[in-house]
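Entry 14. Two folds queued back to back today. First construct below, sequence then structure tokens.
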Amino acid sequence: MDKMNLHLIDRSNYLKGLFITAKLDRQLTQPEKDILKNFSDKLGFAQDFYEETVNSLLSNKYLLEEPIIFSDPKIAKSFVIDAIKLACCNDLITVDEIDWLKKTASLNGIESIFIDKEISNYKNAEKLNSLGNFALFSII
């Protein structure tokens, strides 16, 4: 499955979900910006779209924090894993981020224990060495 086979709505929702995840802790660090840029590029979004969204992210009242529903369980699981990596990249994952990820997971048929396990796995693993080491990139 490449980005052309990944439906536009799933690509949009994936990036939107990552933006929401980054926004939930009310701070936007450089590692988060780098990860968001990497996804924006890989998913085929324009540079100016990325820049405008990042620059207004924390104050954007129109980016609703509704849970995301994906068309395929494999994409949803990939999203949850990648969103956890994004949330943890600043060494802090908040209750708001965890709750939102659990709601999104639940709507996509993923048990909340999966979230807890992935957070634990990530915290116990070596820090992310490469921006290319994300779940979605292995399926697109």
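Second construct, same run, same settings:
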Amino acid sequence: MGLRAVIGTNVLIAGMRSSSGASHAILLAIRRGDVTPVLSVPLLMEYEEVSKRPGLIPHLNAAQIDAILDQICKRGEEQRIFFQWRPQLPDPDDDMLLELALASGCKTIVTANVRDFASVAEFGITALEPREFARILQES
């Protein structure tokens, strides 16, 4: 079992759009089992909806996107959320990431929008940019 983290949709999309960079390295780490993504049904639904927007990831077709999402599900840890902490963050769509981290006891959220997650420290959670998380993976 790898490092546990809640992975923001922006990290997933960036990793699918480019085969270089920290976000792609995180997707590869998930595939290897070095990262265990903490998942919820609403987050997976968001992953699918956003990743299949026309033109967003032009070099991947729906079947290829499904294969990546299936791999994430295979390597992931599902967590049900029974309590909502809304509103806590500036973007209401980000609250589900905080709720998922709290419900699962996961201490790390990986997102390109760390500025919007400044208040998660109050809950003992760290928001990391993809490059910071990728650096931690390399060191472990």
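Quick look at the second one. Residues 62-75 form the longest helix (14 residues). The radius of gyration is 14 Å.
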